[in-house]
Amino acid sequence: MTEQGFPPDQIDTSRPHPARMYDYYLGGWDNYEVDRQAAERVIQMVPDARPSARANRDFLLRAVREVVRGGIRQIIDVGTGIPTSPNTHEVARDVDPGVRVAYVDNDPIVATHAGAKLTSAGNTGFVLADVREPEAILRHPVVRELIDFGEPVALLLVAVLHFVKDEEDPAGIIARLSEALPKGSCLVLTHGTGDFHRHVEGDAAEFYRNATAQLTVRGYEGILPFFDGYDLMEPGLVQVPLWRPDGETPIPSELARVAFYGGVGVKH
Asked: Cα(102)–Cα(86) distance, rounded to whole angstroms?
């Protein structure tokens, strides 16, 4: 199930797109020269951009496994980005093959890959939509076909909300999406921060000003309220490598290279 919304030839290659820049940070090839140039300028100013992106991706995989182990069998992945294997549905189905996943992204290049990489396995769908329009996401027929809002849902907002400006009311967006979710649903969220890299707030944000979405990094106190209505799972809102690591606890030198907070909350 795929809903592209408009043809791929309308992809804007004149300006860098955060999803394609993120793909470049992860070592992917689904990006354009304009994205690579912008990403390299960010890396020059913020060398930790690439390890931060990889740590964020690793958090996503661990969090998906955790919520599915906890009994959730349906996921809405908003801002999924360029497909990077293992994708959300692949990780989830390692735990339970019956998990259903609705992918949502506002970049049409993601839609061009959705049929081959995201929606060919069955019980998955793709919607071209923007997180800033939560009602359009919730009402979309692809979402309605896949997701039973009478049962718990995992809502993934991973590396998304730092592209939503304060005046666009990110907390209100989460609240509206959360209204549709029953008790026991989970919010999986990560967010870029300048708490550990003060230059992120200036230098990196500057390079996103000409992109299709601008960067708004926030501190711990600005991110924590996004979990209102949810009980944070241990260890709470932390730097992403510290959230239930697969192996040993990361050492300080590794943590110093990560500019993301992450957490998982359970709706009460």
From this structure: 16
Distance CA 182, CA 71 (A): 14
Rounded to the nearest integer, the mean pLDDT of the chain is: 87
Q: Are 208 and 155 in contact (CB under 8 A)?
A: no
Report the alpha-carbon distance of residue 229 to residue 52 in Å, rounded: 28
pLDDT tens track for 195-238: 887 655 555 555 555 545 578 889 999 999 999 999 999 999 99
Residues in contact with 46: Cβ distance below 8 Å, sequence separation at least 6, in sequence order:
197, 199, 200, 203, 204, 259
Q: pLDDT-based confidence at 121, cuts 50/70/90?
A: confident
Looking at residue 209, its pLDDT comes to: 54
Mean pLDDT of 75-88: 89
Nearest residue to 265 via CA among 162, 192, 200, 183: 183
Whole-prediction pTM value?
0.87
Burial degree of 244 (CB within 10 A; 0-12, 13-18, 19+): middle
